[in-house]
Specification:
The protein is 35% helix and 25% strand. It contains 18 helices and 19 strands. The two termini are 33 Å apart.
Length: 512
């Protein structure tokens, strides 16, 4: 079949819905397959051939690029090429690119007589997404049935991992070794074990505003660049983002934070927290909730031009800090783990720090260095932590050592804070993790593409801290953290948290 004639098989979903309606009216049986099909291989061909025998006409829909939840670097082939590859097969009658994240809405539009999946989906309990059960319900609702083909199977992810350089060279070597000890099913099962953990997160609330502007030129009268406003959006950042990350994996998450009493942003905050996150808000008198407004040139890879921050970073009023401490003493024993992200904007004062350190609850801490507190908010302000997770500059600042051996600095901090685990994130160099009883492990990055670094460190701590609290091995924690970090840098700001299903899919793709 020529490429031109193959492309005539490719339709929009609206066109395909009209076609399938006509076919049903003519008494024809429509079979429907759906998937990513990133690398069409013999298993796919056998699957399509078997599916075509279940109906008079076979239609195939492919997942849009933006909805392929297999992690950074995927799909390898864009949606149009994937559609063309499938359309070139003689057993396939029509192809369309899906418009939604799942096939449920597609099934409702196409109303197939038979919805066909491979035998690797035959056991719904093994489907971490829960998608196959929803798809079966959808096809039954339109009068069709679910069927499974039973033929040879291959994994596109495994073939791509083996024969294509999907991930950086260092990551390929690490993953080859890591796969010899862990399967995707084992890693996902360990992550699923976090569901019953009760987690308290504490730190500053930050509203992240992104104002997208386009530079139009230098002002003729001033030494400044004039920009044209395009649009804006706001995200729940700071400790709110941490709470949403954790809530993807643990059912019980409680956030303790401080808002302003002038402009609280409380309605916005409540609508941007996951349903399983409960809150305890304290208020700083005479100020608003922290807002960080970034001005961004969207056409230059989200280049951040400058930032305006609205906050009062002086210490809390003594009465407010005392109220926070009294509250914490009353609730800390109810939780399995406490996660602190300390942005150094005045909330985490010495009495609150001492209250957390004196408690018996597992304590994970990140103390951040940023433009507002540089040099004044070090991890060493905490007398105790079970798990420390900071980036390399923050570690070096805390140890007053710019060029010394990083592993020596890590063991020093671990000793000073009596920490069993320490992780140092290192940007494009991955992460170095330490376990007192397991020594060191270096894990490379799993992505070449960075959309936005904002919030990536928070995501890393938020996902790994419950893992450490549950006692997962250090190398497994670091692997999970880097996988979460790879997903986080592909998200604009804190627009969405690292969710369990995309992380599970990415882990599956990595370990095929």
């Amino acid at each position: 079949m020529s490429a031109a004639s193959a492309r005539t098989k490719i339709k929009t979903l609206a066109e395909l819905a009209t076609l399938t309606a006509s076919l049903r009216a003519a008494g024809k049986t429509v079979a429907h397959c759906h998937g990513v099909f990133d690398l069409v291989h013999p298993g796919h061909i056998r699957h399509f051939e078997a599916a075509s025998r279940l109906g008079d006409v076979l239609v195939v829909t492919v997942t849009r690029d933006e909805f392929v939840n297999k992690g950074p670097g995927r799909p390898v082939f864009p949606e149009q090429l994937r559609a063309e590859s499938i359309a070139a097969l003689g057993c396939v009658d029509y192809v369309a690119v899906n418009e939604w994240p799942t096939a449920v809405e597609t099934i409702e539009h196409l109303k197939p007589s038979v919805y066909v999946k491979g035998n690797d989906y035959a056991h719904a309990a093994d489907d971490v997404t829960g998608g196959i059960a929803k798809e079966e319900a959808a096809v039954r609702a339109v009068g069709g049935r679910l069927a499974f083909t039973d033929d040879i199977t291959f994994s596109s992810s495994e073939l791509l991992n083996t024969h294509f350089e999907v991930y950086p060279e260092e990551a390929q070597a690490f993953l080859k070794d890591f796969r010899s000890r862990y399967s995707a099913e084992q890693v996902i099962a360990r992550l699923e074990s976090l569901k019953d953990l009760k987690v308290l997160v504490i730190g500053e609330t930050i509203i992240d505003e992104y104002h997208y502007v386009k530079a139009v030129g230098k002002s003729p009268k001033e030494t400044m660049v004039t920009t044209k406003f395009l649009r804006e959006e706001a995200f729940a950042g700071g400790i709110l983002a941490c709470a949403n990350h954790v809530a993807s994996f643990s059912d019980h998450v409680h956030v303790v934070t401080c808002l302003g009493d002038d402009d609280t942003r409380e309605p916005f905050i409540r609508t941007h927290l996951k349903p399983n996150v409960t809150t305890k808000f304290f208020h700083r008198q005479g100020s608003g909730t922290i807002v960080k407004r970034r001005f961004i040139e969207p056409d230059l890879a989200l280049a951040k031009m400058f930032e305006v921050s609205f906050f009062d970073d002086t210490p809390l009023a003594p009465a407010t800090e005392q109220a926070v401490c009294d509250y914490l003493r009353g609730v800390l024993d109810d939780y399995d783990a406490v996660i602190v992200i300390d942005y150094g904007h005045g909330f985490m004062g010495p009495d609150i720090v001492k209250t957390l350190a004196d408690a018996r609850t597992f304590l994970a801490v990140n103390a951040q260095a940023n433009s507002a507190n540089f040099g004044f908010n070090l991890i060493t302000k905490y007398p105790r932590a079970d798990y420390v997770c900071i980036d390399e500059p923050e570690m070096r600042l805390a140890m007053h050592d710019r060029f010394g051996d990083l592993r020596r600095l890590i063991t020093t901090v671990a000793g000073d804070l009596s920490a069993d685990r320490v992780t140092v994130t290192r940007g494009h160099r991955g992460a170095t993790a330490y376990g007192r009883r397991e020594s060191f492990v270096d894990v490379p990055v799993f992505s070449r593409k960075v959309v936005d670094r904002v919030g990536a460190g928070d995501a890393y701590l938020s996902v790994t801290a419950p893992c450490v609290a549950r006692g997962l091995p250090t190398e497994l924690v670091a692997f999970i953290g880097n996988a979460a970090g790879a997903l986080a840098v592909a998200i604009v700001g804190n627009k969405s948290p690292v969710e369990r299903v995309p992380l599970f899919k990415f882990i599956t793709a990595l370990l095929k």
